[in-house]
Amino acid sequence: MDWLTEFPQIGGRDLRLMSRTIDQHYRAFSRAYGDTIEAMFRPLLDFLLWFERLLLGTPWFIVLGAIVLIVWLASRSPKITIGTAVALTLIGVFGMWEDTMRTLSIIIVCTLMSIVIGLPIGIVMSRSDRVQAVVNPILDVMQTMPSFVYLIPIVMLLGIGLIPGLIVVVIYAMPPIIRLTNLGIRLVDKEVLEAANAFGSSTWQRLMQVQLPLALPTIMAGINQTIMMALAMVVVASLIGVRGLGQPVLQAITNQYFTQGVLNGLAIVAIAIIFDRASQAYGKRLQRHREAAHG
User: Fold this and answer.
1) Tens digits of per-residue pLDDT, 48-95?
2) What is the dihedral of CA 56, 43, 140, 228, to 10 degrees?
3) CA 216 to CA 180: how far, in whole Å?
4) Considering only CA atoms, which of 275, 287, 286 is closest in space to residue 232?
5) DSSP states along 201-263
6) How many Å apart are CA 237 and CA 277, to the nearest integer?
7) Would you say 283 and 272 are in contact if contact means Cβ atoms under 8 Å apart?
């Protein structure tokens, strides 16, 4: 009658045996396929390293000018553009330029990878309730799993380095682009779709010329959230060897360097604000353009 007073549970010996068995099988899997999986991601790593060398090898004033120009073209806002120039100048003045470029390169590559993988999944979800029912719980797990837990299987499989860092960041950052692509396409006005059907549009034409353009502001919001999620992983990814602004923050925590931690943390915040304001302004411009085009 012990079960009336104590919650029935698996015995400690059985629980340890189960954990040991799972760990042994996973280690065997990582030894057998770890190199193959790492080789699959090698082109992505080469692209990341090339992009990082490009940012670090180009004179700082050209990189700063290019970023400010991109922000201006996206936002057409003097306030956001001047703010970007001031923030990047302060980052350089305080000696964080190189780490910021490394962080920018990994964030941009991870965001591109998330879009390339997530956009088609979101489109497929929008076309099938069954696919949506299967993918949604997976996205829930990806978004609610503590970020440190991602590191355990990835490090066991691939060790420490940039490739596991890329995978961890992409897994954490991808759900918003999938969810908001699905939502944006599903919210397209049915009357507009009926009009496209009446003109004899094919499925592909309807998707490319009607649904995706109309869903673009929502998809841009998804890209914005993906960038923010990727930036949130900068410090966590530094635990497995990803260089950038996360490593000085980690060093500051370890050695109790308050100023170093705050400055690098503020640099991450500045990048997040630049991406957020520029992408939001671009999304609003697209929304206004769409409303003007449709009267």
Assistant:
1) 889 889 999 999 999 999 999 999 998 888 999 999 999 999 999 999
2) 10
3) 10
4) 275
5) --HHHHIIIIIHHHHHHHHHHHHHHHHHHHHHTHHHHHTTT--STHHHHHHHHHHT-HHHHHH
6) 24
7) no
